[in-house]
Amino acid sequence: MPSRFELHGFAYSGPTYKVALALSLMGEPFDYVHVNMMGGEHKQPSYLSRQRYGQVPLLVDRNNGRQLCQSAAILEYLADMTGRFGGADLDERLQAREWLYWDFDRLASPLYKVRVVKAGFRQAAPEVVEDCLNAARNALGVLDAHLAGRAWLVGEGATIADIDIYGVVTFSDQAGIDLTGYPQVEAWVRRVEALPGFEVRTDLLPMESRVAA
Ligand SMILES: N[C@@H](CCC(=O)N[C@@H](CS)C(=O)NCC(=O)O)C(=O)O
Question: How confident is the model at residue 46 (pLDDT cuts 50, 70, 90)?
């Protein structure tokens, strides 16, 4: 039987990894469709008709035909559909959502910007890179302080907030940020990586399409 979910993405994409990791942790096999971003496939009309922002990821739910974009919204959808990682009650669910918004506001944006410049995909003035680096470091400081005395970002168990933010923090080294300066974050990273179903990005996202095993 074909798997329920079809994930369209790119191997080096943090937002694609978040969704792939969520599916893996939730025990949901998925077909993976490689989007040729280097060739501009994500800006072609056929792709734009399915993903209005012209970005990866795109998740298709074959049970109902939904075509979903924006990784944080997709994580919320998956938590709803599987009943997993959504938080124990409404308060936890709302707190998890707050972290999803915070991530894109304060952490993902500056950290990814530094990463793409360091990787040579984009160019930016040194002072812009420095600003982004400082913003990412500040955000990691906020995360570190929040994690003191707690195992997970929200409540007593892992939620989509942890999955979402792990999917950014895992790229810190590529932005030139050493996590040893953030001991609580480092310990939390190890907890996420010990969750059943955890897979590293390179195992979840190949450079070609793959049908679920
Ligand atoms: N907020 C979006 C961001 C997605 C995103 O930035 N995707 C990048 C790849 S990592 C992309 O598709 N970039 C091409 C573009 O924006 O034109 C999400 O979380 O899904």
Answer: very high
User: 112-136: b or e for each residue (b if 16 or more CB lie within 10 Å)?
Assistant: bbbbebeeeeeeeeeeebeebbebb
Helix axis angle for 126-147 and 183-193, nearest 10°, is: 70
Ligand 1 pocket check: which of 56, 58, 109, 115 to mutate, most ligand atoms within 8 Å of Cβ? Answer: 56
CATH number for 5-84+198-204: choose from 3.40.30.10, 3.40.50.970, 3.40.50.460, 3.40.50.300.
3.40.30.10
Looking at residue 76, its pLDDT comes to 98
Structural domain spans, the chain: 5-84+198-204, 90-193
Residue nearest to atom 17 of ligand 1 (CA): 55
Read off the tokens for 135: 């913003």
Nearest protein Cα to ligand 1, atom 9:
13
56 Cα: distance to centroid of ligand 1 (angstroms): 5
pLDDT at 111: 97
148 C-alpha to center of ligand 1: Å?
31
Q: Domain 90-193, what architecture?
A: Up-down Bundle (1.20)
164-196, pLDDT tens digit by residue?
999 999 999 999 999 999 999 999 999 999 999
Check residue 160 and give its pLDDT: 98
In this prediction, residue 57 carries a pLDDT of 98
pLDDT above 90 (res 202): yes
From the alpha carbon of 56, which atom of ligand 1 is closest?
A: 12
* Cα 192 from Cα 195, distance rounded (Å): 5
Ligand 1 binding pocket (C-beta < 6 A) is 13-15, 42, 54-57, 70-72
